[in-house]
Amino acid sequence: MQCSWKAVILLALASIAIQYTAIRTLTSKPFQLCNGGCDDYPYFSLNSSRKTHILVLATTRSGSSFVGQLLNQHQDVFYLFEPLYHVQNTLIPRLSHNSKTMNRRVMLGASRDLLRSLYGCDLYFLESYIKPTPTNHTTDKLFRRGASRALCQQPVCDAFGPSDVNVDEGDCVKKCAALNMTLATEACHEKRHVALKIVRVPEIGDLRALVEDPRLNIKVIQLVRDPRGILSSRIETFRDTYRLWRIWRATGRRPYNLDLSQLTIVCDDFLSSVSTGLSHPYWLKGKYMLVRYEDLAKNPLLKTKEIYDYLGLPMDKNVEDWIHANTRGSNEPSAKHKFGTVRDSAANAESWRLKLSYDMVEHTQMVCHKVLQQLGYKAVKSAEELKNMSISVVQDKTFVPFL
Ligand SMILES: *[C@@H]1O[C@H](CO)[C@@H](O)[C@H](O)[C@H]1NC(C)=O
Ligand SMILES: *[C@@H]1O[C@H](CO)[C@@H](O)[C@H](O)[C@H]1NC(C)=O
Ligand SMILES: *[C@@H]1O[C@H](CO)[C@@H](O)[C@H](O)[C@H]1NC(C)=O
Ligand SMILES: *[C@@H]1O[C@H](CO)[C@@H](O)[C@H](O)[C@H]1NC(C)=O
């Protein structure tokens, strides 16, 4: 059988009937080995084993933009911010009539195929998911294009010179012309490594086919954060979706129709993912590192060095400069320090304690108690303990990469 995954995805997009074929093909055998005869992969050159394919596996509001930046700033890395956004946007409306498990399978199959293509710098493949469909390989609809340094630089964008090191995401989108995917593809090929950040794959087990793909050299960085912090951050950020949680916080009474799955999904996914990762299955050997957001916030430079050691890459000056510029204490009120100061970001990592009520925390601790324990996040036993910031609830715990 030939490598017809591209066709499979396009057909899946085109018709519900054919989706079932797609589902079978995508799940029965996640991908076929193309013993030398795989014309779909001209870009996987003999040197591909030397290329590192970095995957940041995270969830929303877990600090993944920060980790993404630590990779994005490296001059040898081509970085994309959440390319799976487009898959979800395109597939979800078409899948709504199927069962949840079926949808999940189609999503995951499509996601793995897209990730595989992107690691090979095939950015045209992404075009099938972008709406409106790009014409002449040009689009201004790539999600968070400005978060990708290589897409805001020459030769992809002429608006900024080599001296503009810290191009603001909004400025990039404003000043660069529509994205020429051909140039983006070339920029990707020119970089030694490719890093992708995703928040739309529930757990590491879902990526096994990708991790085991012999054409890839995947290194997973699983980013976790205290679920209580994630909840608090989501309540602030996704105001509509988490409206009932805000009502709970404001009134002290839990709304009867509160969607508890918004919390349980985070904890269940963390638990299964982290349990898999830390049980060291052979297929993850050398390919898995668990990072707690709080450790990174407390000690960004040291932790980033550990991450680069694990990746087997030298950390370059750009990365170090970026950490200094974005995490060091600064009293300039005008400074745009999105990620707070070193001291502040360490405190920030626990600022949810001042924002959530004790009964919300207590509830979270009950639902998530296993994963809190596993990751070294201490449960608080009273409102006083919750609000007493002189005692951290993040326990010292070392997670060494699985080498
Ligand atoms: C592989 O890398 C070597 C050394 O960097 C280079 O000379 C060669 O052209 C590369 N081969 C391919 C197919 O890219
Ligand atoms: C795409 O390119 C063709 C040939 O250069 C041109 O005729 C056409 O107008 C272009 N389409 C758009 C939407 O720019
Ligand atoms: C995109 O860039 C390529 C490579 O430089 C060029 O050949 C092509 O004409 C560009 N496309 C558009 C629509 O400008
Ligand atoms: C906070 O905890 C510390 C250490 O247990 C304790 O000494 C201090 O009195 C507490 N502060 C408040 C306001 O309860």
Molecular structure report:
This is Sulfotransferase. InterPro entries: Carbohydrate_sulfotransferase (IPR016469), Gal/GlcNAc/GalNAc_ST (IPR051135), P-loop_NTPase (IPR027417), Sulfotransferase_dom (IPR000863). The protein has about 400 residues and is of the alpha/beta class. About 45% of the residues lie in helices and about 10% in strands. It starts with a helix and ends in a 16-residue tail after the last helix. One 2-acetamido-2-deoxy-beta-D-glucopyranose binds near residues 136, 180 and 182. One 2-acetamido-2-deoxy-beta-D-glucopyranose binds near residues 45, 46 and 47.
Sheet/helix structural class: alpha/beta
Report the average pLDDT across residues.
84
Largest sheet: 5 strands, parallel
Element-level helix/strand string:
HHEHEHHHEHEHEHEHHHEHHHHHHHH
Bound molecules: 2-acetamido-2-deoxy-beta-D-glucopyranose
Q: Write down the Rg.
A: 21 Å
Strand content: 5-15%
Work out the number of β strands. Answer: 7
Q: Quickly count the helices.
A: 20
Shape designation: globular
Helix content: 40-55%
Main location: Golgi
EC number: 2.8.2.-
Subcellular location: Golgi apparatus membrane
Domain Sulfotransferase: 52-375
